[in-house]
Structures are given as structure tokens and as C-alpha cells.
Amino acid sequence: MEPVNSTEVSEFFLKGFSGYPALEHLLFPLCSAMYLVTLLGNTGIVAVSLLDARLHTPMYFFLGNLSILDICYTSTFVPLMLVHLLSEQKTISFLGCALQMCLSLSTGSTECLLLAIMAYDRYLAICRPLRYPVLMSHRLCWLLAGGAWVLCLCKSVTETVIAMRLPFCGHRVVSHFTCKILAVLKLACGDTSISEVFLLVGAILLLPVPLAFICLSYTLILATTLRVPSAAGRHKAFSTCSAHLAVVMLFYSTVIFMYMKPKSKEARISDEVFTVLYAVVTPMLNPVIYSLRNKEVKEAARKVWGRIRTSR
């Protein structure tokens, strides 16, 4: 069968939650509040990490990268999603869709790698404390973080170009509130096998592999803390590890569900709910889990705030 002419594709319609008006009215204040908390919390972490010299360590360097990632990731789609929740016109241009797809893929993929890097950093700090300053040097920190950003950007540009060069025929309705690559591929009438292979390989390399590495790192950390003679020290380590793993499991379990489940042509509201869970809720929780429970960050924040008040 001849595909419909695809040269005139200029925009897509993001269906989102348009079939559930009551849900739209509920999601707007909730997502607005979560997005605001995400921006304020993660911006605060970056600012404090930069302004306080005591936080110029590998742990807070990676934490600052995670905060920047969370801001960029949620900002790729949440502002437009909020506009669409209140608007009848839920369209996005072809170029805007490609840009949104590429940036969300890139930042989301980078976060997968960065969480694994952070677990490795904690493993070295706790299990190899004497060699930690040498093993996790300033240069290695920049190489690990920069490599994750560049590698995932190149991967995402490739996946986006392959997907958006496919012929699109029939309707232009994306069954999602964002230009998610899996939702856009459902509109293609050409052969999507190459794009699907790229996505599968990327999903395997960025999901089960880093998750297994994270689990191994924290298993070794817990084994080391069991040998700590101080009960208070063990409790602190267990508390920190459980909190970190809670966010990791929330993020990875929902992403794995989205990208590695059996392919379906039918759009499901659960897909969008899971996307909100890992793409909006998790970035909001990261500042609380990784920083606000940390005494060093609290003290640094009070110090920075005190300097700001004094300067006035």
C-alpha cells in the first residue's frame, strides 16, 4: 500500500489527557506545584554547591549535575504540558516535537548513567576511603560527568533523526502529552525496525546494566557498613543507602516498564501516568532524598543565606 504523502507534516496534536477533563483540572495545580518545587529545590542545590567551598567535593559535583539534569529534563515538556492542560489547542510544530524528543531522551538517558556514577562514587568513598581522593580525582569527575552528557546527547540525536525521518501518514495525533519517541513512532507508516533496534540497544545499555551496577555498589557498601563498630554509624549509612535506593528504584522501575514492555499499538492512560511518575515526581524528590536530609547541605545553605542577609 502506498503511504500518504508525508512531506507536508508541519505539526502534531498532543492528545495528552484531553479525554479526561476532570483529570486535567486535577493535574494542573499538582504538576505546577511539583515543577515549582523541582526548580527551587534543584536550583538551591546547585547554588549552595557552588557558593560553599566545603561542598566542592566529587559527591556534590555529581549532585549538582543531577540537579541541573532534573531541571533540564522536566523543563523540556512540563511548561508546554501545563499550557495544554488549560488549552483546547494542544499542538506542537514538527521541529519543536523533534527538539523536545531529543532533549528529553538526552537528559533522561544521562540521568540513568549519572545515578550509576554517583553509586560508584559512594562505593569508593565508603569502601576505599584511604584511596578515595586519588581514585576519584577532579579530572576523573569531569571525564565521567562530561562523558555521560556527550554520549547520551549523541545517542539521542541519532535516535531522533532516525525517528523523525520516517514517513508519517494518516492522523497526526500523538497519544501522549509530550513528543515521546515511542508515541511518535506509532504514527509512522514506514519501516520502524531500525529505530526500534536503536531504542532496544539503548534501553538495555542504559537501564538494566546501570541498575545492576548500582545494586552491586550498594550491596558492597552495606557489607562494609555492617563491619562498622559504631551503631550510630551503621544506622546513618543504612538510612542514606535506603533513601538513595528508593529514588533509584522508583526511577528505574517506571522507565524500564515504559521502554522494555511488549510493544502495543493501543494508547493507554497508564503510560502517561507512569511518565508523570518518573519524569515529574522523581526530580522533585531528588533534592529531598539526596540533599535536604544531609547535614552538610543544610549547614551550607544556612551559611549562604546568612551571607546574603548580611550583604543586604
Automatic annotation (TrEMBL):
Gene Ontology cellular component annotations, sorted alphabetically: plasma membrane
Segments passing through the bilayer: 26-48, 60-86, 92-120, 140-158, 197-225, 237-260, 272-292
Domain of life: Eukaryota
Entry GO MF terms: G protein-coupled receptor activity; olfactory receptor activity
PANTHER family (alphabetical): OLFACTORY RECEPTOR
Family listed: Belongs to the G-protein coupled receptor 1 family.
Name of the molecule in the record: Olfactory receptor
Gene coding for it: OR13J1
